[in-house]
Amino acid sequence: MRQHPRYVDMDKCIACGQCAAKCPKKVDDEYNAGLNKRKAIYVPYSQAVPLKYAIDPRYCIYLQKGRCGVCAKVCPSGAINFEDTEKMRTIEVGSVILAPGFRSFDPGRLDTYSYGQAPNVITAVEFERILSATGPFGGHLVKPSAAKAGTAPKKIAWIQCVGSRDINRCDHGYCSSVCCMYAVKQAVMARDHSSGDLECAIFYMDMRTQGKDFDRYLENAKKSGIRFERARVHSVAPPQHGDDLTLRYARQNGDIAEETFDIVVLSTGLEIAPESVALAEKLGVPLNSDHFAATDSFAPVATGKPGIFACGAFTGPKDIPHSVMEASAAAAAATESLSVARHSQTHTLVLPKETDVSGQAPRIGVFVCNCGINIGGVVRVPEVAEYARTLPNVTYVEENLFTCSQDTQDKMAEVIAREKLNRVVVAACTPRTHEPLFQATLASAGLNRYLFEMANIRNQDSWVHANDPDAATRKAKDLVAMAVAKAALLTPLTQTELPMSRNALVVGGGIAGLTAARALARQGFPVHLVEKSDVLGGHGRRLRATWRGEPVGERLAGLIADLEADPLVHIHTNTAVTEVDGFVGNFKTRISTGGGSETIDHGVAILATGAKEYKPKEYLYGQHPAVVTQTELDDLIGAGDERLAGATDVVFIQCVGSRNAERPYCSKVCCTHALRNALAIKAASPETNIYVIYRDMRTYGLREEIFREARAQGVMFFQYDPEAPPAVEAEGDRVRVTFHDHILNRPVAVDADLLALAAAVVSDAENGLAQFFKVPVDGDGWLLEAHQKLRPVDFATDGVFLCGLAHYPKPIDESVSQALAAAARAATFLARDTILVGGVVSWIDPALCTGCGGCIQVCPYNAIAMSEITGMAEVNPALCKGCGACAAACPSEAPILMGFNNRQLYAQIHSALAA
Amino acid sequence: MTISNAAQPKGAVLVAGGGIAGMQAALDMADAGFFVYLVERSPSIGGVMAQLDKTFPTNDCSM
After folding, report:
1. In chain B, what residues touch A798 (CB-CB under 8 Å)?
2. What is the mean pLDDT of each run of 10 residues along chain A (915 residues)?
3. Could you tell me which residues are beta bridge partners of residue A897?
4. Which residue from B minimizes the CA distance to A346?
5. Residue pairs spanning A and B at CB distance below 8 A
6. What is the fold, at CATH topology level, of the domain defined by A103-271?
7. A168 Cβ partners below 8 Å, 6+ apart?
8. What pTM value is reported for the model?
9. Using CB atoms and an 8 Å cut-off, which of residues 797-836 of chain A contact chain B?
10. For A1-91, which CATH class?
């Protein structure tokens, strides 16, 4: 590895920003997509990690010309090092994960949109920065041509598929997957930022909002007045007079229209950067023709080179939840072969013995942070520090430029010992991000980590009162006084260790469940796989091939054989879960097989219970033999049925049971599935006419390839809107399908030998498993993850994970990714010897509890239960997350939230009111 | 960089790229007991997601 010189010593830099303030060299700010300037010495953005400056050697006057050096003169900590050099490092690793990401397509390569000539034609990334509060215009939506005057746009257009689905003007045949959704979001946000009369129009070919909750978002956007124009955009003409942009486009019926806009946003696609291509070549990782890493649907994060894995946009265009999922999947796949070396390279932190502070009078140390100029630029920090010295029990006060910097942490540990501090208050930023850091410092100094309190004088003070230093300083003093008042009453809290069972339970024996079980076994953990039917394989048993053509049956057989041969895997078919008890590390689940039943002890559970195919009520399904579902068509193709061989006309109707009022979601797999079947029919009998009647063709990502192929093979496509669905009537042993042709602008009827319906994927939530594990289900019946983007396979309940169709309809490659991800997340628990329980948790005083059960209703983690013995509510500390909802809800003040008890909070309130 | 042999694997992994995918992979492996080298070309981690304002479909702040 080659490490580029930073020219700034990371250990010394305190990110005060004086260097950048004085640096004379201004350059384009990449973070703001070049819309404003930064200096040659810079941090990319204010929340950057690490928050340390770096010199850009391409622009630094000293490094280029040998003069200047002003940053070195003003740096208070001597962090500038112009002598810094490139370092070569060699490391030995067990495997490698490539996650180099993507870059946004540069529309400067196209000459039709006036990008680079008209300042108000911008890319989606540029628009994203304009919307951002940390962007070039402070979050005000203005025309870039008139940013200084602050002129707001009245009409904005988005042009979809710029640099995607285009093999004529650029070489990107694929769909970039994310642009439809980001354009809708940007339009919604733009209207949010404007005073209300902003017109937004999105020009698109197909709206591809196939993800979870995406169609709802789209429909809400339509209702809110955002216009969606199905069109092909010819050009954006540069402004003739003023800065109006003229958009010329062809409507669906072929009419040409012209319309003017203030801003045109180009929804630029994703592409792999040449540096990533070079990296792949250097490592011998094969790429596909679009430069994405070549992968297999059943091993979606393995590259063609053993030991090297890939995730994120590098394996194909994808959104954040899918990237996060794939990242966890890569973590599982990359460590499968290393499981024997687990913990061999990591270090365990050894902490000193905790000092007993019981019986000691409080000795509080207060550290007041300037946060560079974030706080110190508004609040008079020396005055706050001086005030802190006057507060009761305070025996030490210190002011820091950055309390969170490593050198301050080292010093804080020394001060705690030297001054015999037994409580610490930091007045700085938010405990959400920084409390764990300071608590670790306390622990390293032998102080219980809960003898700590923060006063947020940044987010709650200097940021919101930036224009009023006097008031901000007064408020900072109040916040410090409140924190000190509470700190005096803090008591040490303990955490106890509970053993962690190494067993995993996987419920569901489809592709997702099988994949998760195999991944966990390969990580070295025993697995119980429970399947309600008598065979393994789930829906995979009926599918012939993936969209790429991998044979599903063969792969499934291999997966099942692996599991059957693995001594760590216990397969339970014909088995149902009947009772679940316990919590992470210590679940006890009762399963019944036939007449018998047994209890399994397990540490984690993965729910992979799948979904069902909708049985259509529409289009004569079940009433006429010529009408089948796509899955039934799979069977006919697989069996070489004679009805297909003799067919002259076959019609497909898409979105049957999906994207309607009852099920307002996209079933995601049907467009691709239908086209696979269309191509299979065409391959066997090229003369057969195939008519696909669709709403939006959602062959997202690299799947666009088969849409292109289907058109090339002569498959015909007709778009319909839900207000005017096709009509189907019996016509002897055929069915007559009538639909609207937009080009002819008249109804067309086809007598079809076979009508295949793309039936929805529907939830199987009534199986009751979610209730057993106390995990939530959304309005459409899908298992509801802890966070849609950042925790896509976790539940809020620790130790329970999800994957596969039970989460949302998805194709095989995504089910496999999600299953591997669930295994990786499960392994982060299974790798531990114990789990820690306690700390900031609630305890219910039985002397005050009346047994009303109000706390049980409000607890979001199902951590409280009514004791059968006492009749009073009891908290399970292993499930409690310390949110305090029970303490707020209880009319008798029976719940005591440790670290936030009523005495402590009242002390804070008294302090605030006394000020 | 060398990849260790299969018989005596090294319990360490290199992740190239510090965007949302690279960071998540690194965290999961570290939490599962493996040493991780997270390598990023630019001066800070965070990748493209740090440039986004809000994220769909929940309109959460990207940062």
Report:
1. none
2. 93 86 95 93 87 93 94 92 94 97 95 94 96 89 93 97 94 97 96 89 98 97 97 93 93 95 97 97 97 97 98 98 98 96 90 92 96 88 97 96 84 96 95 90 96 96 93 97 97 93 97 98 98 96 93 96 98 96 94 93 97 96 97 93 91 98 97 97 95 98 97 97 96 97 94 98 87 92 93 93 97 98 98 92 95 93 90 92 94 95 95 87
3. A842
4. B35
5. 226
6. FAD/NAD(P)-binding domain (3.50.50)
7. none
8. 0.91
9. 824-825, 827-828, 831
10. alpha beta
